[in-house]
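From the thread on structure requests for the teaching lab: each student submitted one protein with a one-line request. Submission from student K.M.:

"Model Putative pre-16S rRNA nuclease from Pseudorhodoferax aquiterrae, tokens only."
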Amino acid sequence: MSAAPAAPDAVPAHFQSFLAFDYGAKRTGVAVGNRFTRTATPQGTIRAEGDARFAQIEARVREWRPDALVVGVPFHPDGAAHENTARAQRFARQLRGRCKLPVYEVDERYTTTEALSLGARDADAAAACIILEQFLRNLP
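Reply posted by the TA:
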């Protein structure tokens, strides 16, 4: 079962800190942020696959101790799902199972393009930051 995009009021008010991911087959951008400031800070991109990727993610979860995780899920411009949509949703399910934390999905159309247009040196981490700030802006 896939996680549905979070309705802003479905995120408990006591959830204050979040770790976000811009999933990619080879690289996964990471950002950390909080509800109080509604801002996010990019963290180093994870350049690993499979269990090695999850080992690094689990280390970040231990370090930051977020209340929940956020995953960017890509869609076509018209909102239709595609192959990478399913991959990102599978990644979200794996995170939920491995990290035992709530996982919220966010539509991430154009985040990497936006990150590149802003001159980001690490486009994946910057995209994760954009994803998380978009999520935080929509919380009550």
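TA comment: The beta strands are 17-22, 28-34, 39-46, 68-73, 103-107. Residues 83-99 form the longest helix (17 residues).
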